[in-house]
């Protein structure tokens, strides 16, 4: 039996989580403030602490060092309902074992506490000191964004490659910059390289450099971009558009941290961290033989997927105020964006994601000429791609074909057709949502729009638990 201290001013969370951990055989103590928690820690040792960030009086992050003084290496699990990239980074830097965003799934949170207890006090840790914050541009407080902040905070202190995926306009370069700015390499160069924009005939020389006389016009030796970024971070943007021949050379550079300039067989060591970004479906490109599996797995040591704006519409008002403030620093974003304007913004599909929203706000600010932003000041919404025809490759066409085939195969079993259809579509959807929400069933049930108990029933039904 282990002793666990829960410090949270929300009595319901203390009760529910305490009961859950108690059922697992742990002895649980609760405190509603950091000061009460520190007093409890002074009176007796604890094997783990679950610590909320926002508390009356001393906040959780500020209290971490005091808990360390009293409890030594006991792991501390940070929980918060108001997570930001700055909070996540500070928690990891202070040595939090893990970082959970409310509302969390009790099973998932219990598993985190169990791992913390089994770790013997080992903390995740991170880059110590010199924290410079998240940088501009990553705005949002929705659960998907808080999960994104946690991923950035976890990986920033390391030196592993990161593959950043997401639709166009979601902010892949912003995520890359945030990783760099919170990494030990933050004082050195951050170099984004748009590989698709480089001339196919010059891309090798641009990346790896060349020797004098190696080709017509090479009048002198020249270092490549990967050498010039020494000590820093290189973002290989649009990695999905790189030709196969160049993928081999990039793999060698990432794998062995060395490059061979054009015209020189002798490799040179490089000291850079590699990040890569794409909006292309790399698994599909691999299946089509257009992307190397070895390069994919080397880059995706730590994959980060950025959610499209339509999956976090709750962030739209905050983003709109942020962009309006950028356009006119003297403008009061809260007053300038009326409720009907915000309602219109939240209603739209945002096919172009955050980039489209930013452009819409900039355009509306110009049309409004310093006054409140009205719905009619916004540009016309870009329609999302509609359903395809019956002969297309889209979802509706696939459903139509499956239905026709099912009817042909068993014409007398029409009463079970619906159940058979659900058995086809629900398992992959449930797996995808759970994977996106890091197996957090509370968040997954919210995303799907069903009650958590219904989700559990479906998982048991399909053998997914």
Description:
The protein has 465 residues and is α/β, with parallel strands linked by helices. It has 20 helices and 14 strands. The chain has helices spanning 11-23, 34-43, 60-71, 85-93, 106-118, 143-156, 172-181, 203-208, 225-228, 244-256, 282-287, 293-299, 316-327, 333-336, 339-347, 353-368, 395-409, 417-436, 441-448, 452-461, and strands at 3-7, 27-31, 48-52, 76-80, 98-101, 162-165, 190-194, 209-210, 222-223, 233-237, 258-259, 268-269, 273-278, 302-305. The chain has a 5-stranded parallel sheet with strand order 2-1-3-4-5, sandwiched between helices. A hairpin with an 8-residue loop joins strand 11 (258-259) and strand 12 (268-269). The longest helix is centred in the C-terminal third of the chain and has 20 residues, at 417-436. It is globular, with a radius of gyration of 26 Å. The two termini are 26 Å apart. The model is unreliable at 124-130 (pLDDT under 50).
Strand order, biggest sheet?
2-1-3-4-5
How many H/I helices? 20
Instruction: Give me the Rg, rounded.
Output: 26 Å
* Uncertain runs: 124-130
The backbone outline, from C-alpha atoms, is globular
User: Which bin fits the share of residues in helices?
Assistant: 40-55%
**Strands, count:** 14
The pLDDT mean sits at 86
Strand content: 5-15%
Structural class: alpha/beta
**Tell me about the biggest sheet?**
5 strands, parallel
Beginning-to-end CA distance, first to last residue:
26 Å
């Amino acid at each position: 039996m282990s002793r666990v201290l829960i410090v949270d001013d929300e009595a319901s969370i203390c009760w529910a989580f305490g009961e859950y951990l108690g059922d697992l055989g742990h002895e649980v103590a609760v405190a509603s403030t950091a000061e009460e928690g520190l007093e409890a820690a002074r009176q007796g040792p604890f094997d783990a602490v679950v610590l909320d960030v926002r508390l009356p009086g001393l906040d959780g992050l500020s209290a971490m060092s005091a808990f360390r003084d009293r409890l030594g290496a006991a792991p501390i699990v940070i929980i918060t309902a108001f997570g930001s990239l700055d909070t996540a980074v500070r928690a990891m830097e202070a040595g939090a074992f893990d970082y959970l965003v409310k509302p969390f799934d009790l099973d998932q949170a219990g598993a985190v506490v169990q791992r913390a207890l089994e770790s013997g006090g080992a903390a995740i840790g991170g880059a110590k000191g010199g924290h410079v914050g998240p940088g501009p541009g990553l705005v949002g407080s929705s659960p998907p964004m808080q999960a994104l902040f946690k991923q950035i905070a976890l990986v920033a202190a390391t030196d592993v490659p990161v593959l950043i995926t997401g639709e166009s306009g979601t902010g892949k370069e912003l995520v890359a910059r945030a990783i760099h700015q919170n990494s030990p390499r933050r004082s050195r160069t951050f170099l984004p390289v748009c590989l698709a924009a480089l001339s196919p005939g010059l891309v090798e020389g641009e990346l790896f450099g060349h020797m004098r006389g190696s080709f017509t016009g090479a009048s002198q030796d020249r270092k490549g971009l990967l050498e010039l970024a020494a000590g820093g971070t290189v973002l290989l943007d649009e990695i999905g558009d790189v030709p196969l021949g160049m993928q081999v050379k990039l793999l060698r550079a990432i794998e062995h941290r060395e490059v061979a300039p054009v015209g020189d067989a002798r490799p040179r060591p490089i000291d850079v961290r590699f990040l890569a970004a794409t909006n292309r479906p790399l698994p599909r490109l691999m299946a089509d033989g257009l992307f190397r599996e070895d390069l994919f797995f080397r880059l995706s040591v730590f994959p980060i997927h950025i959610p499209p704006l339509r999956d976090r519409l709750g962030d739209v008002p905050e983003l709109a105020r942020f962009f309006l403030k950028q356009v006119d620093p003297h403008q009061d974003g809260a007053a300038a964006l009326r409720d009907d304007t915000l309602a219109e913004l939240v209603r739209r599909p945002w096919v172009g994601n955050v980039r489209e929203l930013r452009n819409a706000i900039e355009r509306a600010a110009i049309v409004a000429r310093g006054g409140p932003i009205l719905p009619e000041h916004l540009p016309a919404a870009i329609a999302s791609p509609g359903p395809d025809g019956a002969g297309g490759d889209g979802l509706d066409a696939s459903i139509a074909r499956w239905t026709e085939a099912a009817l042909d195969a068993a014409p007398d079993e029409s009463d079970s057709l619906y159940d058979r259809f659900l058995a086809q579509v629900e398992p992959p959807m449930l797996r995808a949502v759970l994977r996106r929400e890091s197996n957090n069933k509370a968040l997954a049930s919210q995303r799907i729009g069903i009650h958590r108990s219904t989700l559990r029933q479906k998982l048991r039904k399909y053998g997914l638990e």
